[in-house]
Amino acid sequence: MSRTTDVIVVGSGLGGLMAALAAARQGREVRIISEGTGCLAIGTGCVDLLGYAPDGASVEDPWAAMAELAPAHPYSLLGAEKVREGLDALTETTARHGLVLRPASRDGKPRNTRVPTIMGTLKPTYLMPDTFEPDDLGKAKRVLVASVMGFRDCRPALVIDQLRRYPDWANKEYFPCLIPTPFDDAHRALNALDLARAAERPGGSEWLIGSLKERAEGCDLVLMPPICGRHAGSPLARELREALGCPVVEMLSIPPGVGGLRIRDALMRELAALGVELVENANVIGAGVAEGKCLSLDISSTGRNYATKARAYVLATGGILGGGVLLEPGRAIERVFGLDLALPADVAEWTEPEIFGSQAVSKVGVRVDDKLRPLDANGALALENVFFAGRSLGAHDPAVEKSGYGVALATGWQAGLAAAELAAAAHNTGEAATGGEQ
Amino acid sequence: MLETTVVVIGGGATGMGTLRDLSMRGVPAILLEQGGIAHGTSSRFHGLLHSGCRYVVNDPESAHECIEENMILRRIGKGCVEVTEGFFVLTPKDDSNFVEPWLKGCDAAGIKVKEITPAEALKLEPNLAPDIQRVFRVPDSCVDGFRLVLHNRMSAERYGGRAYLYHKVEEIKQRNGAICGVTARNLMTGELMEIACRVVVNAAGSWSGEVAAMAGLEAAITPDRGTLVVFNHRFTSRVINRLHPSSDGDIFVPHGSVTILGTTSMPTDRPDDTTPTYPEVTRLLEIGEPLFPKVHEYRILRAFAGTRPLYTPGGASGRKASRNFNVVDHAADGLDGMVSIFGGKLTTYRLMAERVTDDVCRRLKVTTPCRTAEEPLIETPDPAVLARAAKLFPVRALNLMADRLGDDLTKTLQIAEVAAVAAKNTKNTHITDFGGGNPLLCECEMVCLAEVECVARDPSTHSLTDIRLRTRLGMGTCQGTFCSLRSVASLVEHGIPLEFAPADSMCRFLQERWKGLRPVLWGQQAREMEFSRAVYAGILNLDGAMHEQNN
Question: Which positions in chain A touch B439 (Cβ < 8 Å)?
């Protein structure tokens, strides 16, 4: 694989896929180098933009609240308009594959919605699948909370107990229900992905509908785990809603992230149609760098090592969890280029005593300019043809802010556009020769 | 007002062992513990059942006691002890002149030591450094401190002893120079409990100085802080000690699937100074490196710290202070009926309990001899019960469960059997369980639903942390990320509420785990931490829910 491509994207989480999409839409030749499935495999399928302000206040309008973020926050670097471009690109693309994502609105203004989780907590999120009607949640009086026998992660009793603790949800009538498992006893511990797959198999919709039909009678809302199919645009949720004659809402669930995989499915189909090349199970183990430019990436894949080249690179390698940021005793570094990442010298200051407090260590990441190119410790441009996106960027804490997918898609999209522009310019000046065959 | 003869203060191994001994000798007794099971030092050490070799040079009396108690505990505490043996290893960094006095000391203490060649040692423990100089096999073992305390309690209860957890002593009452009672506060309800008694045994370990002060007595107890590191793997089969004079961080102890390295030693003025720090962790790794050159690369699960109750009447401190124990009858200080047990270590807890109980019995003119060294802590599981259990529980987990549960095994089995019958009869119409099987809620440590339920129903269980201490739930690789949600969900489903609302309960549990992660936040475990935050904050909004729900 020595042919020089226009843009190499490292990572196939939401940031990486959006970057690849942006560059491919600009007519660039794009190659994705991917180690694993990325963040979409643990995601919920709803898109969080900004749920809580830095002072912990709940956010109704994320667009307005973005203006209050710190200057180094990825949203502040891009500005709300560029975030919106990324969001529109995502929704337009997933819709084309049958997955319509949209925000709720009040008085004509889009707003966050508080969505129930399999734990019975409510989480603010921005975009939801169109099977999900926010008004249904508020209006419902009689709620069936359904799960599946043997599925340990979602137990209706807990969901009901927790929902009742919210003033808006306290006065509804709840009915717990466990439907039979579609597997025999010998099956290993069930997760939501197993069930979503089972629901798409022959007989799956009959299982779902048949088990819920009678139990949902008289109810005006059904809450269930995300098991209505694992593909984008699966008709199951709509079929179920029609058969039961009442709204059906899939609660946000813990990994494996069925909802996130549906978004991934839509994006992958789109990228395949655009001819984007995907190299899977490939680990970037180093980079060739000279005169402030990345010349090539060293890849290790299925026992073979090789170098791969592009005119521009997007690094969407993830943060600490994704493996793009490595924490070592006393320091943090960016994995591919070894960029030193700023953390207090005293390790005691990396964290706060409260687990959900503001952790310096959770905000560690690559510092970038407003074009998302990496800066060195002195604030000078470190690499001119490399762009960072998603969780590898510092200065945000998606877990607490509820901003993960928002930052990923917005920075991914803009990094992809910038990389495409650079690659196009390199074509025009004939610079491709420097990245020639080896 | 409750009435009893003896009140024991402190629910660690010594206190619970004393309750057991008193109860076995027929002396009515009540134990008061401010926290949960093994709240203090008995849960915050490396889990080494000393052979005594560590003390043979400086503290021969301790060494002798250790080897005797070690052999006794292997007999009476089968569910708590893993008989592993240990190595004492001389590395190139250690002084070879220490070997001769050490060998002499082992001989004098009656500890059987056998030298093997480094090549043989490396065959048995391949992860050891290849440049080790000399290796000696010693009868070290491993002991589970939580379980030891729990099983002592079970044994005491069989003889009528009672233990109140989460009860903090607020007053030790005396009349005319003699003990007449104790006032304790139930920390869960805030209510006061009055107990009339004739004798108070102060077995509060690191807190025993504070307890003595409450009775107007002075005691030279200096808490000494020790930090330990838990590795994600069991990379040795045996306990590995560095062969040199006692110092920081030189013992690796395997436990189930993990390994513990400890400890540091640093004076502190607070018995509850149990927050580990980053410099302590890096120091431990540095000292461990000559034994295991790759120790820096091993995945660390967490760090924790405990305090040793050093008894320092002469002003000795740290490593120099004796690990010996002292039974002090405060009649000599003018308070009749107050007995303190100061110093000591977990390996000799039973002997300490025996000595203090001897003293109490002399006063009460009870002549029943001590039998704690003869009778096992828990009864051997009935094969018929095990056979029934094998039908409902994952077979791999069965022996672990039997060891953990002790007297509760039958109760747990009954819970599972009732659930199985209910599942068969209800035909899925409403909330029933898992088709009658009994699923694992914690896969890392193989803890089943019925086990969690049984422990949760115990009146002294208030939190997920209490459940963890008795079952090991959440102590494995995922550090509670998956099992805490499942456990809380199952408990709500079964109508067994914990002290706190579910979100609060889980937050407290994760918070407790976080404390141990903070000083070791790198590598794979840092990823696990971010995963846990992504799940509980990012997806489930536990942090927001805490402020938005009514409790």
Answer: 150, 152, 189
